Amino acid sequence: MEKSGEMVVLPVLVEQNYRACTIPYRFPSDNPKKTTLTELSWINLFANSIPSFRKRAESDDSVVDAPAKAEKFAQRYNDILEDLKRDPESHGGPPDCILLCQLREQVLREVGFRDIFKKVKDEENAKAITLFKDVVHLNDAIEDEPKRIENLIRGIFAGNIFDLGSAQLAELFAKDGMSFQASCQNLVPRPWVIDDLDNFISKWGQKSWKKAVIFVDNSGADVVLGILPLARELLQHGVQVVLAANDLPSINDITYTELIEVLAKVIDLTSVSQELSYLASDADLVVLEGMGRGIETNLYAQFKCDSLKIAMVKHLEVAEFLGGRLYDCVIKFNQASI
């Protein structure tokens, strides 16, 4: 979805004053002027990512003097994180993963970078598009519907592995290139840390959905080989599908314009509109995909319609919070609250 005008609350949310934050970074009893251990842990996590972001920025040949600007980004963002350690209310705090991401993107744009992952995103999208037909043909060949839906869900998890921010994970599951099918088979065994797959398949079998809004995550295999086959399956069952993507770059998330380019090459989806709030008002299924959107911020969000949160756990801090394993899978399905 492309943003048009003022941002509004998603109309199918039950709590209109809902705060997108799954992990409790602090409690009312905590000193507002002192960083909590959880906040400090996440600040350090983002600090540890600075070298990889600086390296990515240095190689951005669309920016003049990229190496110098990359160094400026690294120093400025590190200073901000140090400020937050001393005073959690500085820079719009207290900090959580959303604020830490926003500040990182803000600094990148301030020093002159728009999308440091653009080149590699385009490369990953191109690779994934070459595999799209084979993936959907394999899905179509599964005649048993519950097994076919499970295979689609496993494909979303496998696609979510290929996160440019998790290079070790991508290498672990795809040592011989983009081995998507091998990744599907190498998922941690069920039961997963949150595992509502059977409930989701059962509701799918009722054929009661008319419109689904899917919030997409990463470029490459994630969206092309994970989400689009699911969207295609929904379309084949007469469900209207709305795909929602960021309008501005954020790490390796696919943007609205990039999504339009991908769709033109792999599938005919004409229900991608510019006004998400209007289109989502009568949705009866909302899908939130990706660790940031599906776990770290909105895992406990309640909707007036059915909702599916699905992602792979790629941060140790998240795995510990959930009581699961690193690289565990989360599929949380809730039927309409009201």
TrEMBL record:
Q: Which cofactor does it need?
A: Ni(2+); Mn(2+)
List the residue ranges forming a coiled coil, or say none: none
**Biological process per Gene Ontology, one example term:** coenzyme A biosynthetic process
What name appears for this protein in its UniProt entry? Damage-control phosphatase ARMT1-like metal-binding domain-containing protein
Q: Name one GO molecular function term.
A: pantothenate kinase activity
Q: Which residues form the Damage-control phosphatase ARMT1-like metal-binding domain?
A: 47-267
What are the protein's UniProt keywords? Answer: Hydrolase, Manganese, Metal-binding, Nickel
| One GO term describing the cellular component | nucleus
From which source organism is this entry?
Dorcoceras hygrometricum
